[in-house]
Amino acid sequence: MGTLNYISNDPEDTKKIASDFSGTLKPGSVVCLYGGLGAGKTAFVQGLAKGLGVTEYITSPTFTIVNVYESGRVPLYHFDMYRLADCDEAYEIGYEEYVYGGGISVMEWPENVADILPESRYDITISKDDGRGTDFRKIDIIKVGK
């Protein structure tokens, strides 16, 4: 798989792209979401969750660091690494048990733990272009490693 490029014109497009992409994921998959505040990372996770059959309401784990959803075909672990000061804090919340367990791990702000990201993962960048509309997003998906 090379780079996949998508255009989203609203949050529903973003969710649909993510829902379709969820079909490529299997237990142990790691998805790293890059993009600024308000880029649509949580909307992307909501679409992934829908594609995985998750029935719980999906929210950003800004203060809890990780939200666990177990109602889908596999567990979904949704991380927000924004508030972590370093990789040691990721280990303290059980990072390894989640990421190397049997679920699908999705990380917002993975650049904050870049040193401990798995070699095999999906890097997804969501970019805004306000010149093309406030809801316009470019979504690039790259498979890293095997």
Major sheet: order of its strands? 1-7-6-2-5-4-3
Largest sheet: 7 strands, mixed
So, the CATH homologous superfamily? P-loop containing nucleotide triphosphate hydrolases
What best-fitting shape do the alpha-carbon axes yield?
A: globular
Can you tell me the CATH topology?
Answer: Rossmann fold
Write down the secondary-structure element order.
EHEHEEHHEEE
The total count of helices amounts to 4
Radius of gyration from CA coordinates: 14 Å
Which regions contain 5 or more consecutive residues with pLDDT less than 50?
none
How many domains would you count in the coordinates?
1
Quick synopsis:
This protein has 146 residues and is an alpha/beta fold. The protein contains 4 helices and 7 strands.
Can you describe what's shown?
With 146 residues, the chain is an alpha/beta fold. The protein has one domain: 3-Layer(aba) Sandwich (Rossmann fold), CATH 3.40.50. Helix content is 23%, strand content 27%. The protein has helices spanning 11-21, 41-52, 87-92, 95-99; strands spanning 4-8, 30-34, 66-69, 76-80, 104-108, 121-128, 137-144. A hairpin with an 8-residue loop joins strand 6 and strand 7. It is globular and about 40 Å long. The N and C termini lie close together (10 Å).
